[in-house]
Amino acid sequence: MRTFGPLDLGCFRFDAGDDGVAVLTWDTPGRSMNVISERAIDDLEAVLARVVDDAAVTGVVVVSAKAEFSGGADLALIERMIADYRATAPADPVAAATVLLARSRRLSVLYRRIETCGKPWVVAVAGRCLGGALELALAAHARIAADDSATRIGLPEVKVGLFPGAGGTQRVMRMLDPERALKVLSGGREHGMAEAVALGLIDRIVPRDRLVDEARAMIAAGLETVKPWDRSGFRPPGGGGPYTPAGYRFWPAAIARYRQETSDNYPAVRLLLRAAFEGLQLPIDRALAVEQRLFAEVLAGPEAAAMIRTLFTGRRALDRHPRRPRGLPERLPHTVGVVGAGFMGSAIAAALALAGFEVVLVDRDATTAARGRETALAGLAERVRSGRLEGAAAESAMRRLTAGEGIAALSGAGLVIEAAFEDAATKRTALAAISEVVADDAVVATNTSALPLAGLADAVRRPERFLGLHFFSPVERMRLVEVIRGGETSEAALALALDVVGRLGKTPIVVSDGRGFYVSRVVAAYVGEGVRMLAEGVPPAMVETVGRLTGMPTGPLALADEIGLDVAWRVAEVALAGVAPADDPVARVISALVPERGRLGRKGGAGFYDYPAGGRKALWPGLAGIAGRPRPAETIRVEGLKQRFLVVQALETVRALGEGVVAEAREADVGSVLGFGFPAFTGGTASYVDGLGSARFAAMCVELADRHGERFRPPVLLAELAAGGGTLRGRFPAG
Amino acid sequence: MPDAFVYDHVRTPRGRGKLDGALHEVSTVRLAATVLAALRERNDLDTALVDDVVLGCVDPVGEAGGDVARAAVFAAGWDRRVAGVQINRFCASGLEAVNMAAAAVMSGQHELVVAGGVESMSRVGIGASGGAWPVDPLVALPSFFMPQGVAADLIATKYGFSRDDVDAYAVESQRRAAQAWAEGRFARSVVPVCDGLGIPLLSRDEHMRPGTDMQALAALEPSFRTLGEQMGFDAVAIAAHPEIEAVRHVHHAGNSSGIVDGASAVLIGSAEAGEAAGLTPRARIRAFVSTGSDPALMLTGPVDATDKLLKRARASLADVDLFEINEAFSAVVLRTVQAFDLDPAEVNVNGGAIAMGHPLGATGAMLIGTLLDELERRDLACGLVAMCIGAGMGTATLIERV
């Protein structure tokens, strides 16, 4: 009998037991989370060779030594593959693609060899098991998991512009009916164990400390090592594949829903559909080959790189607060006060309480504050009911959230967030009152979407301990917080604010003062462009639909209604500064709606839309009367409108960077996608410019300026970049 | 270039396309053989003179599969030297067969050709032949696939046809078809389908509901609302036509074409071939076209095809005396009439597929025959057939009496 030496592994430990079962423990050194790096793949290949060669090994149990099982593929590795491909493709595209395919399919090939090695592999999951790690589990012969709420599985690839390309599409489509399979593959959701077992993706759940023993027992009891799809006569679940009566019922609607949900802007999901559809018609090995080619095709496109850069690398970097003043120790307030128990105030209070802060919610009187607290509690209860929040977490948050009798209740707060009505006078009054009662070292923040801090700071007693925190609605779902540094904001105040935002689990961008800061300023450009289109005679529904087809979450007119047309009107009034509304198309439309007809937007039940009680909102039929008769749709280029929506926002971003409102291109990117839903496939507003190239973007702007107005005229900064072939990322690099 | 002349046309009556339809017990091949046999008998035709039989069939699988035209040659007892070919241009297959037969004659390569079509929708079933268009993302996405009824509702929404408009059109189709039958206007072309003893199984179109009124139609639920709203197809429609806020679903079984069984055949040949066979030409095929059209609207091909056809023929609308625009759905005809500002009194004068049914592959050749019979009855010169087609196509043919 051959004897085997120890395996030289970097990320795993391989312990062959006396019973023949080898336990493979994943424990990437120096990282809190296991990821599938090149080294991990090398290790797995070596382990597989040993398992196959060593007759004494009867099976393998894979476990993790970390709190989580694994986050999946190392996206830095994927970024390198993409970068290498891009560097070599111009010279020889086919050779570059061949290399890309060879590298990107390696994991899939390895998993298939594990699946067909003839000895049983059991993946024992505790903690989260995501992406490529779940694909390993799916290739294994059984999946066993811990029966606790920290254990979750999921395929989040689509969120960063990828799809599960290590056999995931083929195995899930062969394990579940197509409806559920596509939801798991393209939904990007994490699934708890109850759901995972019901789906059939996890075979058994046991207490965490019993995982390895139970996995061993499964192997001892005998596990089938030939997958159903490797037997003759296998038929995919749910009717047997695409070209069957069941297939004709399923696929047309699945494709329609894909378009409905993505406007066909996301190649990864489109190619995922193709992998699923085409793969189901083939034997598994050829199906995997199809999946591998389509996965490489996703990597070769611009969207995957852009989405990884912004939604993974960029967002994670900002979560580490690179703009936090260095050298200051973390200082979290024990108690946070929230002033203004309205919709936003109560939601912010709930988020703070959930994050572990003692929260005092106050308003003009105790009754109003108590009502705000009730709103916050109801929101928490609703999240528990829908399964998005643990009951225990909600209960302790509720205990930490109190309603104050009056403003004096804020005296012990280390941070007070003023969330009063969005009106400078109202806020100044609230801020002055807060200043009266808070301790000298307390930080005071105003939650405002657009009001410049310069106009509020003199109402505060200590302007160096004053800043802006722009939360987005709905607070529990929106990940971004815009942190606004006023003219006198101290480093200590900024550090404290960032520490609190971090504790809330939200991603901050740090911006300078100015009307609309970054987010609202760009949103206003989007909304304004939509209103202009309306005034030009683009049919209202077309303005809205094309906004969504562009990839924005909401049409510009619906968004204007949400923000409030009275707000838009105040902005327009200021901008006009005495000029007659008739000379400005946006002002003409808004003035016809607000002062003339009292249509204030959603909250007033009437704006660009009508909001019938209990019914679906519908565009107000009177729009034609105020905006002019719509032109025939056939005379309007949809692509032209889409371009205007994207360019107007990107150009406003260039200006914000140029004026120093935003410091880093990646903050503009992350802020645009997380803050106002700028289409993720572009990678964000700055990446959109860099993706096109500054010269091409500038040329586009010139053309749009000539045709549609001076707002598109490239600023000096853009002209300079274009002349030098520079990028926004290069000009506004990470600090 | 030789002219292509129409010498004769026959069709079966259209049987209700269900298990209890009169033609359900008749196979696809026998339906096709019925019209071939009738052509031979009526014209005392030496079938050895016929070069080819071109038959449209939209679901050519099972009993309709392989090459149903060659099968029909045998079943009809025609000379074994007559070739056969089955073609598929979806709903315009029967018209395309006429056009391809005419093309073969006009190019001088064939002398005498039978063109027609056959569809036993009760036996084979609509959609039985499958295909990539609705299910393969590579095709379904760029073609904005949606069920045809949703596309018809999109046309109605986009061009402003209300539920009353589409229902009123259907009522008129029923009225005209009933009147045409009552006056014997189809007598020259319709041959009964008989059993082996000569006992007729069906002599008249079976799908008609004479006396249908607005009230009866108003009671019907829109057929495509659930598909549109719940399966995402309305969103597909709106993505392609973003000026539309919401699709209004107006079509239902009463204002859409009927599902039926039937077959048709047109005898087409050169002047010399007609002379040799002792036949008298009835009409000349002046021009024909096929074209792609907006795939999301899907069924507006008759507008594009008519435009293209008139240019090709160097003709104008004023030259055309009567129009047959296939009644796939009310909105298809209403949109075509609207686009060219046609006189409704000149369009589908004897009703159409809403009343009598649409045996997919056979309808086009039926429309040629119906149009020709009516031109003769009214002693008019020129007629145009235009058909809408799945996946966004249009086929049209211009004929003139000689």
State the strand order across the main sheet of chain A: 14-13-12-15-16-17-18-19
Instruction: Report the count of strand segments of chain B.
Output: 12
Radius of gyration of chain A: 28 Å
Low-confidence stretches of chain B: none
Poorly predicted tracts of residues of chain A:
none
Largest sheet of chain B: 10 strands, mixed
Query: Rough shape of chain A?
Result: globular
Written description of the protein model:
The complex is a heterodimer of chains A (735) and B (402). By secondary structure, chain A is α/β, with parallel strands linked by helices. Chain A is 49% helix and 12% strand. Chain A is built from 30 helices and 21 strands. Chain A has an eight-stranded mixed sheet, with helices on both faces. In chain A, strands 1-2-4-6-8-11 form a six-stranded mixed sheet, sandwiched between helices. Chain A is globular and about 90 Å long. Chain A starts with 11 loop residues before the first strand and ends with a helix. The model of chain A has no long low-confidence stretch (mean pLDDT 95). With 402 residues, chain B is α+β, with helices and mostly antiparallel strands. In chain B, the strands form two sheets. In chain B, strands 1, 2, 3, 4, 5, 8, 9, 10, 11 and 12 form a ten-stranded mixed sheet that branches. In chain B, strands 6-7 form a two-stranded antiparallel ribbon. In chain B, a hairpin with a 3-residue loop joins strand 11 (382-389) and strand 12 (393-401). Chain B is globular.
Sum this structure up briefly:
Chain A has 735 residues and is of the alpha/beta class. The model of chain A has no long low-confidence stretch (mean pLDDT 95). Chain B is globular and about 60 Å long.
